[in-house]
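Support request, please re-run this one:
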Amino acid sequence: RSTTSPPRTRLVATTSAVMMLVEVAAGLAFGSMALLADGLHMASHATALGIAVLAYRLARGWAHDRRFAFGAGKINSLAGFASAVLLAGFALVMITESVSRLANPRAIAFDQALVVAVVGLVVNAVSAWILASTPHEREHDHGHRHDLAHQHDHNLRGAYLHVLADALTSVLAIVALLAGKLWGAQWLDPAMGIVGAILV
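Re-run finished. Output below.
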């Protein structure tokens, strides 16, 4: 059974869900495919984090259930697998919409979209920091951090990677929007949507 504390996963899941709604709505309203792709990706990891929270609850609730001969810990691994499959589906949607935007460009409200993209990046950075901070670190205050790669909790590891990947798509969105605003390279907006999908 995992020793990782789930409240921080719930916090990140809730924050991601709120930011996802903002980014998707802003992407549609301001015409930015890069921002919409970032929002769709955040939607994928908000859902994945929801799966993570559910997995923690099930694993803890069934920890002493005799029907699970080897314990309920494998529920976390299955949830991590479900998150990976979910990401692939969202990536396909992002590529499809981005190609459509390349073929049929739309006007973009760069200033407004940039503000939302920067806020999204900040939210992702804080979320990654929350997930990367281990209970051991907080309890003993050793002054150093432990990489999640060294833990055996695939569920939390998957959630952490979701957040990191979304931070990178936020950076891509900001770069694309700045290039479109400053140099008129509007095609970079849907192109970054494709790059973001490949990254996912």
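DSSP finds seven helices and no strands in the chain. Residues 1-5, 136-151 have pLDDT under 50 and may be disordered.
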